[in-house]
Amino acid sequence: MALITEHKIVVFVGGVGGTKLALGLQNIIAPENLTVIVNTGDDFWHYGLRICPDIDTVLYTLSGRVNRDFGWGVADDSTITLDALKSLGESPWFLLGDKDMATHLLRSHLLRQGQSLTEIVQHLAQKMGIQSTILPMTDAEVPTIVHTETHGTLEFQEYFVKHRWQPIVTSLEYHNSHQASLTDEVTNAINSADVILFGPSNPWLSIAPILEVSEMRATLLSRNIPRIAVTPIVEGKAIKGPAAKLMSELGYEVSARSVADFYGDVITGFVYDQRDTHFESYDKDSVAFDTIMKTDADKIRLMREILAWVTQTEGI
Ligand code: FO1
Q: What are the CA-CA distances from residue 236 to residues 181, 233, 268, 276 (Å)?
């Protein structure tokens, strides 16, 4: 049996939480064996720039550039451009640092020249010295739209950043996702994977937009390999961000079990947190680990535990 570190692993992530798992993986498997497929439902146009927050979080994290206090953006960045915008009478609500701005400028320029998002992300990753593969879930624009009780219909970043995820959500719309197609790169990565992981990202805001891309579910289900999700919910609370609040607004019990049920047949196994004492009568493989990743050592430890468990229980 080959060491699991020699297997090809595809990990699906949204923003900060899921990316922690990708960083853990990057530390223990060969870069050519790691593919990170990233949510782009959060992407938007802002001051003429194409902003892809989750992709950039992955790029900056895997290249060691990330602002570790925020989990997104570039470390030691300045806000000269934003301050100049303010002096021109604007009230920018989305914090774009100057170094970060270079990424948005180049991406927007290359998009306007006709390059696909997949090509651009590969270019950026290569320039940042990342050896593993980072892929947007699709090249099409598929904005997540948030319908709220209090603020009407909002674009994702208006909901998340401008209104600090306080509006009460009535439903979510994964706009255009059924018209969007899988790229050859995403299809090939899934078809050649030995293990598929879903990071502890928000199921409804980060993972659902990925699963809604047309053919994504069917492509995943066609692979008879371990497909494992990690919970973002511990003891009825979100590790970070709006997951718990959103779940209760959408009418779900706030629990790891609700997250496992969200994935349904898409997964063959589920990792919940050891602090959660009741996770019974689940009809798939499940295991409890310490899923809270504060340090890089935590990320590597959790990833090693998950891979060892996958090797034992799912027999790869
Ligand atoms: N998150 C915030 O809470 N406030 C911001 O001003 C903000 C700016 C920002 C700029 C670039 C970037 O790549 C990410 C940024 N984020 C910001 C994070 C991001 O909007 C969210 O974490 C994700 O969309 C949710 O996964």
A: 35, 6, 23, 9
Give the C-alpha separation, 93 to 95, whole Å: 6
Q: Whose CA is nearest to atom 26 of ligand 1?
A: 15
What's the N-to-C CA distance of the chain in angstroms? 8
What are the Cα distances from residue 311, in Å, to 45, 199, 290, 299, 316? Answer: 43, 18, 19, 18, 5
**How far is CA 242 from each of CA 202, 239, 249, rounded to the nearest angstrom?**
8, 9, 10
pTM: 0.97
Segment 180-202, tens digit of pLDDT: 999 999 999 999 999 999 999 99
Of 20, 86, 94, the one to substitute when testing ligand 1's pocket (max ligand atoms within 8 A of C-beta) is 94
Report the nearest-CA residue for atom 20 of ligand 1.
53
User: What does the DSSP assignment read for 224-249?
Assistant: -S-EEEE-SEETTEESSTTHHHHHHH
**In which order are the strands placed within the sheet that holds 152-155?**
152-155, 144-148, 169-174
